[in-house]
Amino acid sequence: MKKIMCVLMGLMSVLLYFCSPEPPQTPSQKAKAYLLANLDTLEQTVEHRLQRLATSGSEDSIRFAFLETRRRYKKVELFTEYYAPTASKALNGAPLPEYEVLESKAFEPSGLQVIEEHLYPEFDTENREELVREVKKLKSVLGRARVILEAVDLEDANLLNACKQEVYRIMVLGISGFDTPLTNAGVQEATVALQSVQEVLGFFGEHKQLQQLLQEAVAYTSEDNTFNGFDRMAFIMRFANPITVTITDWQQELGIMPLPDQLVLNTQAATLFSPDILNNDAFAGSANAAATPDKIALGKVLFFSPVVSGGTRTCGSCHKPELAFTDGLPKSAALQEGKFVQRNAPTLYYAGLQHAQFYDMRATTLESQAVDVIRNKDEMHASVEEATQRLNQQPHFVQAFQKAYPGMEAEVQPRHVMLALATYVRSLTPFSSRFDKHMRDEQSQLTEQEIKGFNLFMGKAKCGTCHFMPVFNGTAAPAFTNTEAEVLGVLQDPDAAHPTLDPDEGRFTHSGMGELRFAFKTPTLRNISKTAPYMHNGAYETLEEVMDFYNKGGAQGMGLQLDNQTLPPDPLNLSEEETEAIIAFLQALTDEEQEEE
C-alpha cells in the first residue's frame, strides 16, 4: 500500500509541475522576446528579399525591399541605438567616412544610408555588384548586433530610458531627414518607431494617457507625412514632449529607480528641452574637471584677468560677453598691432557641449584648448607654467585655488589653471532663449514666422541635419558621442564677381589627410544674432549672405570644383519669404540670460 501511495504522490507531483501556470514574464523578458522576434524578421528581410533582389531585381523591386528593410529596422532601432551603438552606427549611420586623425586612417561607411545612395536618385545597374556587397555587409553587421543584443540584460530603467531616447532620436534625426537624406521618408518611419515605443511601454502595464498620446502621435505621422509639409513644431509640442514627460512621471510611479547621473543625458529630465537635460561634466576630460561653484567662479576671474597672459590681454579680449563671447571682427586682432589671427573668434556659449575645439578640431578638450591659446604667439604668447608662477606669488589667488581644489598641493599647478578656465567655459550653457521657453511650454514665445522658420530649418532647408537640436551644433542627440565637421566650400569673398574658395584648408592643416581638406567643425547656431560676421573666415557679414550660400548648394552648387564637399550641392529652392522665416527663427535662439564680465 505504501508503495502505491508513493507512486500516486509522485504522479501528482509530475502533473502539478506540468499543469502549473508559468510565472508571468517581466517587462524586460517581454521586451527581449519582442526584440529577438523583430530582429529575426529584419534579418530574413535583408537576406531573402533585399539581397536576392539586389542581385537580379528591377530598380522598383529593390527600392521596395529597401524601404521595407528600413521599416523593419525601425522596429528594433530603440534597442540597437541604446544597447549596441557601434553596430547601430554601422547599420544606419551617415554615409560619410569616419576619420581617426591621430592614426591618419579613414573608415568607410556602411549600412542603410550607403545603400540608399546606390538606389536614389536613380539606380545604376553597372554598380549592382557594389550594391550586393553593401547588402552583405549590412547582413554581417546585423549578425554582430544580434550577438550583442542576445547577451545584454534589458533592465527596466534602461528600457524606459531607451524609449525616451528613441523619441528624442525621432525628433532630432528622424523627422529632420538625417536618416533618409534621399528618400525623405523620415516622417513615415517615425510612425514605425513610435509604434515600437508603444509596444515596449505596453509591457510595463496599462497607462491610458501614455497609450493615447502614442496612438495619436502614430496617427499624426501617418496622416501628415509629406517631408516638406510636416509640422514638426506641432508634433514636438503636442506629442513628443508630452510622451517623454509621461514616461518620466510613470517611471517614478512604478518605483523604478532612475539611472546614475554620470550619463550625458539626465534621465530624470522630462524633455529634450529641459534646462537640466545635459550633464556638462560628461563632456569634461576627467573627474577633476567636474564643476563646482568655486571652480566656476575662479575660472571666470582667470578668464578676465591679465595674470594669465602676463600682459594686458585676457581671454575676454577676443571673447566678449556682450557679443556672446565673440569679438565682432572677421578675424581676431593679433598681439602685434595691425595684424590678425588666422580665423574668426567663435562663440564660447555651449562650447563645452562638443568633443573637439577650434574650427579645425585640433584640441579634444577645453583644457587643451586653453593651453594652445595661452602659448599661441599671436594670441597671448605666454605659457601656463609662467601663469602658474605669477598666481603663486599672489596669496588671494592661492587661497581661491585651494578653496576650489581642496586636495591640491601647497602651490597652484599648471593643470589647475587649465581646469579652472575650462570649467568656467563649460558652464556657459544658459538655455534661456525664447525658443527654449517656448519648447518648455512656459508660455507662447515664438511668432508664427519663427515657428515657420523652425519647421523649414528642420525640414525643407535641412539645416537640422548638421546643426542638431537642442544645442544646434555638430554633436548629435541623443547619443552626443561625436562632433562632426563639414566641407562646405566657404568663399574667400561672397561679394566677388568670380567666387573663389577660401584658402584656409581647415582640418587638413594638422591632419594631412586629403579627405579633410577644407573641413571645419560645425558650430552652434545659438546666439547667432550676436556673433556676426560668420564662417571661419568672417567673410559673411549677414545671415542673409549665409543663407544665400546654403541655398545655392555651397561651392559645388556655385560651380566650383570641390570633390570632397559634404554639403549637398543641390539648391534648396528657398523663397525669400522662407529665408526670412529661417533667419527669424535663428534670432529666437538668442539667450535672454547673458553672462556679464
Instruction: Please give the domain count.
Output: 4
- Low-pLDDT stretches are none
Say how many strands there are: 4
Instruction: Output the CATH class name of the largest domain.
Output: Mainly Alpha
| SSE order | HHHHEEHHHHHHHHHHHHHEHEHHH
Query: How would you describe the shape?
Result: globular
* Helical fraction: 40-55%
Report on this model:
This protein has 597 residues and is mainly α. It is 48% helix and 2% strand. It is built from 21 helices and 4 strands. It has a two-stranded antiparallel ribbon with strand order 1-2. Strands 3-4 form a two-stranded antiparallel sheet. A hairpin with a 4-residue loop joins β1 and β2. α3 packs across α8 (186-202). The termini are far apart. The model has no long low-confidence stretch (mean pLDDT 93). Residues 448-590 form the Cytochrome c domain. Residues 1-18 form the signal peptide. This is Cytochrome c peroxidase.
Describe this protein with a few key phrases.
4 strands; two-stranded antiparallel sheet; Cytochrome Bc1 Complex, Chain D, domain 2; mainly alpha; two-stranded antiparallel ribbon; 597 residues; 4 domains; 48% helix; Four Helix Bundle (Hemerythrin (Met), subunit A)
